[in-house]
Here is the input.
Amino acid sequence: MKWTKLLPFTFLLLSIWAQTHAQSFNNLPVVTQKPPLHGKHWMAITGKPLAATAGAMIFTKGGNAVDAACGMLAATCTMWDVLSWGGETQALIYNPKTKKVIAINALGVAPTGATADFFKNKGMKYPPEYGPLAAVTPGTPGGLMTILAEYGTMSLKEVLAPAMQLAEGYPIEAQTANSIEGKKDLIKQWPYSKKVFLPHLGAKREAPDAGEIFVQKDLLETLKKLVNAEQQALAKGKSRKEAIYAANDLFYRGEIAKEIARGCQEQGGLITEQDLANWKVKIEEPMMTTYKGIEVYKLQQWTQGPAMLQTLNILENFDLKSMGYNSTRYVHTLYQAMNLAFADRDFYYGDPAFSPEEPMKGLLSKEYAKERSKLINPNMNDPKIGPGDPYPFEGKANPYLDLLKNWGSASLTAPKNNATLDEKFQESFTAGTTSVEAADAEGWVVSMTPSGGWVPACIAGNTGIGMSQRMQSFVLDPKENPFNVVEPGKRPRVTLTPSLALKNGKPFLSFAKQAGDEQDQLLLQFFLNMVEFGMTVQESCEAPSFKTFQMYSTFGNHERINGGLTLNEAMPAWTRKDLGRMGYKINYQERTSGPINAIYFDWEHGSFWGGSSNHGEDYGIGW
Here is the structure.
């Protein structure tokens, strides 16, 4: 038979395949590169396939979503998924028993001696990006143990078992192994890091090879000490919760704390035993706004999370659906709305435990958002947009009007506005981390964005624990942000921003992503993809997004690029030209959506849909 006679049959097969495999949005046929995940009993999604397997292992042993999330958190930290055990953990948890969303603040604080003058006297404009002076106190161990103790069902021994197996040795993946090799010159500055990361010291390639069994003896011993402390407490008749907190005490007040402080100070850092002993996890009320009746939850203003809530409030004043997905008007409107919210973030957000008090009631009011929306020029990008004045919207006078007048002036920001959309700037702006999403049939939902202690991490003594680099998120000059100036005991304003949404009083979406200042930008677009354009969760994770750089980076030199815009390569030529005429400085990327990890709750069918972007190593398992 000639091949031409086979064409109709071939097209029929392709048509059937497309109908059975394709998903569609905006009336256009689209095939996602990853299939959506489906589950009836549970869902576990995170930044490493092996770590998602750890979550599945916890579920199959009878754990709930909280147990599984903690197991995945421990595994990702052990695998250096752009974070380590010495970093920080931020989480939102939906409790089906109370039908409330709980916020977990497990971010470390600036140590003793970390003042603005300390860094200025060293000739620094900001705290450093790397090394022992970049470290706030470790938060992730306390965050994991508090979450597990308060809301989980399993022992620490059970939950840490997969991570301990990984610490004994696992086949390291190319992404992390190559990152170690690329950063080895920095790693060699710190003796404990060199010992862990560079097993082939002196060879041409000093980092592990992809697939090589990567062993972390010191970290394994640290995890064993935590489990032993728990088991000894149980043997003495302590409850499950009390025993987990006994392990927590060992970490923050016992021999582990002593070694962290010693190892940090030996390498030039500031963390003391007292800093560790004084630090505690905070269980907080989350921030919330509504968008078209959907409740969207974020952490408080020590994160950038409320900026997404502000943007949603602004966007409620526009008919986004009628603009068309990723049309010129749509991209421009979202970009301008985000600029307004992120300018407020850059000036007003900080640790609410320290004065001055942030004007969050005003910032999150619908009336304030309506006034801000009037500033959007429909025809051009506005490079001069700055923070607004939310104080009248909570019945107060703004004490910082003089700072607002000069904010963004050349004398303050000119050195930071010289950035270009090059690879180094974008790497700093989108500094990675990971995310953890878990849900179960009982109704528990967990959304986490843990981070800190990424490669190249300075390891604290013989603990195997990489210290955080979060100090760089502070500023030293109150003219930039009077709420986020470094002080001992203070938490920096971070980019880490897990998300939960409820609809009709039930979980609707659990979603989070990595990558620094772009997190809430892309989470916003993900959310709108589903709510405004009817995409499935996997389509929303993969759909072409765009990124703005017209806010100050939280990292490095805290630069920004007025009009800086990254578009997906799929954007048509006429849209590119339109946006160029509107004053945007554009570059292009093949994939722009993530990695976003998300769970959608299908109440009509009683099941979960899981989604994960089509780049990076993020993925999950459902059952």
Summary: Confidence is low (pLDDT under 50) at residues 1-29, 410-416. The first strand starts at residue 23 and ends at 25. The chain is about 40% helix and 15% strand.
